[in-house]
Amino acid sequence: MKMFKILVCIKQVPMVSELPWDSKTGTLKRELAQGMMDPSSRRALEAGLQIKETRAELGEKTQIIVLSMGPPMAMEILYQAKSLGADKGILLSDRAMAGADTFLTSFILARFIKKEVPDVDLVLCGSQTSDSETGQVGPQLAEELSIPAIGYAADIQLQGQMVRVHRHVDDFFEVLEMDLPGLVTIDQAAYTPRYAAFGGVQDAFETADIIQVDARRLGLDENFNAVKDSPTRIVDVYSPTTRKENRVLKGTAKAVVDQLFEDYGKIISSAMGKDLKGQGEKI
Amino acid sequence: MTTATDIWVLGDYRNYFQSRVTLQILARATHLAASTGGKVCAVVFGHGMDEYVGEYIAHGAEKVYVVDDPALKTYAVETYSFLMTRLVEKFKPATLLVGATRFGQEIAPRVAKQLKTGLTADCIDLEIDPKGRLVQIAPSFGGNLIARIITPHKRPQMATIRPGTFQELVHDGTAKGQIIRLALPTDMPTEKIRCISSEYKPSKAKGIEKADIVITGGRGMGSKGKFKKLFELAALMNGEVGATRPVVYANWIGHDALVGQAGKAIKPKILFAFGISGAIQHTAAIADADFIVAINKNPNATMMRMADVAIVADANQVCSGIIRAIKENIRD
Amino acid sequence: MEFNPCVKHQLIRKIAREFSENEIKPQVAELDRDARFPHDIIEKMKPLNFFGLQAPKHLGGAGLDSISYAIVVEEVSRVSAALGLCVTVHNSVGIYPILKFGTQEQIERFVPAMAAGDSIGAFCLTEANAGSDAGGVETTARKVQDGYVIDGTKIFVTNGGVAGTILVFAVTEDEKKSANVFIVEDDRPGFSVGEIEDLCGMRANPVSSLFFEDCRVPDENLLGKSGQGLKIGLTGLDTGRIGIAAQALGIAQAAFEDSVAYAKERQQFNQPISRFQTIQNYLADMATQIDAARLLVYRAADYKDRNLPFSAQASMAKLYCSDTARKVTDMAVQIHGGYGYSKEYDVERYFRDAKVTQIYEGTSEVQRMVIARNILTQPS
User: C140 and C223 in one domain?
Assistant: First the structure.
């Protein structure tokens, strides 16, 4: 029986709750941030795991390969994916690849897939990572691989060499079918990810099938430079200024409520679409 | 080349009634074109879109490229992105802007890849730099960082634009625009995705994402019983109730009400935040509120710092106070 | 010598932390207030191997090393010391003695259900007249044909109210009066559970008295060989101490993190109180002691995994971690001022929870005895 191959693209992102800020420059000290598996990547992996489980009940075999690109510390999320049930992990890691925009990231991912997993059946991606939030790598990867793609899947049913996808995009409820090989990105509310069991973690480290691949092994040109070769360039990054008026009201509950309506009654009543008497006066 | 300075906007009429993002982008494009020169153009694919074409002209489009064919009646990503690429290659605009609806976010990356150009996602502003290049201003980390991005060498410069970012121009029924009708190319690719069904179901209920008034509560409300007061206030104000993650996990309210990274993003005209300290996962989802009133005993909570009005007091008592004040003063 | 955590330990910490933050934290204040054991959370913990952390995989456990085990206990305790207590007691003095001293038949009979979390473990030594002094145990086991009849009352049994597999310390009524440990299932006639204790801290753990009245168990329920009771008890306690040390560490860590956050937020005299040197000194002391405590825990765990004698190391870790938890939670309340004394903030719970870590699994005084005995029996 043919092995069904699912490739899931995952990314390590800084843990948002622990962003170390340089308060002087207002920039992120990314090297100090703790990494975690991007929440939307986790949903994509979960979708893959559920497909594998459904197939296993029918006695059909599935291999889940997780593919990531990032610094060496991103190895952690590959082990995490393995703990959760992935079979194999690959980290594309090289200084030359750092700073790639979505155009180049999808190019590099596709390069590996074409070279090492040309027989992939289904590629799964999150719909939007929590750091750069572009949602562009999935569709662009499909373009690179010359395979069709469906975005924002709420549910995937595998039917032989075809998938049926339910999705809710904008105000449309759609059911789509796509022949495989193809790519699906998973909606951010679908496929609630499971926690890894500690036994799974132990297994992942005992039977590691996780490798790092550099630019040379990918066959990239020695002059390859992701920052230089990316079509977009970041001019600067800053943290947005907070609201100008940060009015502080103090006092008893009654006093502050009175003050609130006195000074902001108009805003409140206009949002409510109802008039409040004594607007502008104390109420 | 006569068209190398044109700014194109993809007509997202599919979402016309929900999001007027195309009209909003046309307004900004008009503003940008004032400094770069070139024409503001809309591009539409589909079947029977004449009313939208008229709307685009009335809202600033000087030219509209139209491919109208029965074969395009149902939206299909491969077909639409193929057409878009073909037109760009033919007419070579300097810039291509797309609304960051799901529709736009699905098509734009494909087109950018086919054109081998860059694409910036979900921009919240667009500017022109001194060299006449498009500066694409986009948030990341849930709005905690803003990046200014350019596409130095490739054309067109592409960006998707967050709906609601720009104000549309006033409808001008007398505006004249050139309509360029193009035939469907003969070498269209076969669509690999079959649409089994597509139902347009605009959500009637406002829901927390679309509510003008949202009342959110955190653990500072004290208990499930006290949290219920927020529902009374919401009913009085015609608003919706939202909550932070600890509150949802404690079952004070259902998961539907979760405002934050794992839940919903809101953009009400006014937000009352009761007893919320402001974890970043939560604050990222409320950054688009027009006016924020935060109530917390701790004046230094993040939520209080990002509020327009920060009330240093017990969340419960203030909630009761506002309920009382409205009951006593409402005019039907 | 390696001071950075390896990828595995880092990942285990993240998983344990994420679970605790998402699934336990939202309920933790309520559980403490109502002294309620959260069966719903326990159900979620079962499939993740929280109840078989070090049990071998073929018996349904995770097969983790002891440092991983300490990390999990620390992370659960950082959010809920009462649940951390449940996990550590179950894994250390519940499962471990059976694995270490049990016959193959006993291991296969008891461990799978325990490792799955379907049968929670408890270990009962303490009685009204016996605590630190195991010699005072009055619970008896009378030999009868094919088994023993146990009589006695155990008090302050952690997990007592929910335990399914209970290790009971009793004195056999023969000439030798030897100490033995019996495995008693909760459905044995003659076994019953007393009222849940109304305690100062650890309130979500169903600590209770357990009664054994003519409670008959078969010979197969005698753990290890007859007369091995004291050895089993002491080995169990050594292991248990690593867990309690990790638990105390988790409490201290939580108190420290809350204190740092509060010190940065709280304004007095128009500046955050973290600008004041007194507060800075508190925070520096807390951080230093917590770091030292953590290293002691890992060393004891590492010794155990390498099969080195770890009794003194476990006692040092337990003594230092519990003292640190007490000091750090005390400073945390002080930093929070009046709010720290209020149930609105978590530090008052940490403060209450921390105290008992100096008492159970051997008081601080007993730990010093163990450490001193180790020093003085070393060949000089």
Answer: yes
Q: In terms of domains, do C330 and C241 share one?
A: yes
Of B248, B250, B299, nearest to C267 by CB-CB distance is B299
The pairing of beta strand A88-92 with beta strand A62-69: parallel
Instruction: Look up the CATH number of the domain holding residue C369.
Output: 1.20.140.10
Chain B residue numbers with beta carbons less than 8 Å from the beta carbon of A28 are 141, 145
Chain segment B245-264, per-residue pLDDT in tens: 888 877 788 878 889 866 78
Total-model pTM: 0.86
Average pLDDT over residues B102-117: 95
Gyration radius (Cα) of chain C, Å: 21
Query: C225 CB contacts (<8 Å, ≥6 apart)?
Result: none
In angstroms, the CA C352 to CA C330 distance is 10
Find the residue in C nearest to A196 (Cα): C48
Using the Cβ of B53 and the Cβ atoms of chain C, whether some distance falls under 8 Å is answered with: no
C14 touches chain A (CB under 8 A): yes
* pLDDT greater than 50 at residue B6: yes
Task: Domain count for chain C, please give it.
Answer: 3
Cα gap B213→A30, rounded to integer Å: 36
C24 touching A, CB under 8 A?
no
| pLDDT, tens digit (0-9, with 9 covering 90-100), for A139-182 | 999 999 999 999 999 999 999 999 999 999 888 999 999 999 99
Among this protein's residues, is C75 annotated catalytic?
Answer: no
Tokens 């000194």: give the residue: C281
Q: Report chain C (380 residues): mean pLDDT per 10 consecutive residues.
A: 84 95 91 96 98 97 97 98 98 96 97 98 91 84 94 96 96 85 97 95 96 96 92 92 98 96 86 94 98 97 95 97 98 95 93 97 94 88
Average pLDDT over all residues of chain B: 89
Give the model's confidence band at A133: pLDDT under 50 very low, under 70 low, under 90 confident, else very high.
Answer: confident
ipTM tops the 0.85 cut: yes
- What the block records as the tokens of A111 is 């390069």
Q: Per the structure block, which two tokens stand in for C176?
A: 């030798």
Residues C78 and C185 in one domain: no
Query: Which of B302-306, B327-331, C185-189 has the largest mean confidence?
Result: C185-189
In chain A, residues with a C-beta closer than 8 Å to the C-beta of B238 are 272-274
On whether the CB atoms of residues A271 and B213 are closer than 8 A, the answer is yes
CATH of domain B7-181: 3.40.50.620
Are C203 and C236 in the same domain? no
Mark which of C227, C251, C267 sits at the end of a domain.
Answer: C227
Chain A CB within 8 Å of residue C19 CB: yes
Residue C175 has a pLDDT of 75
CATH architecture for segment(s) A4-229: 3-Layer(aba) Sandwich (3.40)
Q: Which CATH number characterizes residue C78's domain?
A: 1.10.540.10
Q: How far B326 CA lies from chain A's nearest CA (Å)?
A: 7
Comparing C-alpha atoms, which of A127, C14, A16 is closest to residue B260?
A16
Backbone angles phi, psi at A96, to 5 degrees: -65, -20
pLDDT in tens, B142-162: 667 788 999 999 999 999 998
> Could you say which architecture CATH assigns to the domain B207-329?
3-Layer(aba) Sandwich (3.40)
Q: Does C110 touch chain A (CB under 8 A)?
A: no
Residue of A nearest to C44 (CA): A195
User: Which structural domain range is residue C332 located in?
Assistant: 230-376
- How many whole angstroms from its chain centre is CA A37? 8
Is C1 domain-assigned?
A: no
CB crowding B199-234: b at 16 or more within 10 Å, else e: eeeeeeeeebbebbbbbbbbbbbbeeebbebbebbb
